[in-house]
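Continuing the batch. This is chain 6 of the set; chains 1 through 5 are on the previous pages. Same settings as before, nothing changed between runs. Recording input and output for traceability.
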Amino acid sequence: MRNPEELRSHRWFGGDELRGFSHRARSRQLGYNPEEHLGKPVIAILNTWSDINPCHMHLRERAEQVKRGVWQAGGFPLEFPVATLSETFQKPTPMLYRNLLSLETEEILRSYPIDGAVLMGGCDKTTPALLMGATSAGLPAIFVPAGPMLRGHWRNEVLGSGTDMWKYWDDKRAGLIGDEELSELERGLARSPGTCMTMGTASTMMSVAEVLGLTLPGAASIPAVDSAHHRMAAASGARAVEMVWEDLTITKILDERAYADAITTVLALGGSTNAVIHLIAMAGRGRIPLSVDDFDTIARRVPVLANIRPGGDWLMEDFYYAGGLPGLLSRLTDLLHTDRVTVTGRTLGENLASARVHDDDVIRTRDDPVAAEGGVAVLRGNLAPSGAVIKHIAAEPRLLVHTGPAVVFDDYRDLKKRINDPALGITEDSVLVLRGSGPLGGPGMPEYGMLPLPDHLLAKGVRDMVRVSDARMSGTSYGACVLHVAPESHVGGPLAFVRDGDPITLDVPSRRLSLDVDDAELQRRREAWNPPAPRYERGYGALYSEHITQADEGCDFDFLARVGENPEPDAQ
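Output for chain 6:
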């Protein structure tokens, strides 16, 4: 155990020199008495709440509960508002700003008199951003997940946010429902604070934080409005104080085994494809090598056990009642590294000792999985030399081996303008191709990857087609969507050279994605290609464009991912 003079904050507040005197005087200006904070762990609460982030609308209240826990454990809490990254409203995509929140997190933890941190997030990009920044800062840190919202309801149906939005929007376009039904759906899809209650990116990444060992056991699955969520927040604040005294830093928790277990968990959950990008970036901050191929290797031995939409039948509230993530992990212990330490100070195995599953349909047994293999596959071929991904568990099986003629769109505006043009001759066998939507081209790699189907096919009952892009898609989406094609078209990846009518072959069992055009013709097209003009001339967009890496590298900034020291500030 450490003593008070070893606390990082002591460098600001301790001693008899001018700077210590000045810092103590300014603390009195803030209204703090000496006994409230001197000699106590200072815990930063990084809160991604805002008035325009529905996933986090309850985190202002939860921060007060975290503070209660910090006070009770003998610490001193300080709340910091940080970038909110609202998946719903921030354009062109909050992925453009994930690294900005990561950088903000790292520098706040580094530059203030902070001994440990409670990280509050959950909406898609906030979880990886906070964990990336905290990893780089290297202090004791614990994550408080925002939690999923309650189930949606419409008439006599249970709704899943995102997943059923796409479904019923297609029904509207096909003429199966009208404006009255759509108005009712607007009121029923999202009916409480919290993240999407399907196994989208938010639930996937909150589960990742838990299996990495950065949350209290069971925290990721608790519905946002459940009283257990209040108690978890307070307990997390208390545990943050204890972690400081124990010097249990985030870097002592996150190792190669933790990330291997995170991949195993994502696959067993049938989780979001976005986890591939985020986990590669997160691991890179800890100097832990991770690649898209690691996902495919592990996928071949991990069954999908979580029967949750969009790849299954249930929702996150059901998952929580069925035993939550601890319940699912209890059925995978032979595939996990259960001897590694977590924020509790105990091992993962010890945390799972009392875990139980209460519903074998929501969390399947190994003998009765949702799918025998993990729900994400990594594809390679001349169209994706550095890889692409597909959530094949959420696609129609008939399309997992398919060859069809390409119909090419240069960007999302082009797609929206022409998707219903009869002159394109789109059939259900066509392969829709979207380029100009990657890390640079998007910009920020927006969630355009679930390309809309033409109205005339929807009216015929077609609900899935092969779609290929350098974009991402929402974890709540579904369909035979090939995503994250790398290198992206904007930097001269092969997607830039596809033309209408070119045959494209998708073969998921063989992990192959190929443009069936001979090499000589592809080389002629490559030589005739001209790179697009830079999108940004100044501001954050210019910084982003100059330093963003490709999807297979995690889309981190190169200067944040590289090896090197970022020295501690001189507090005197």
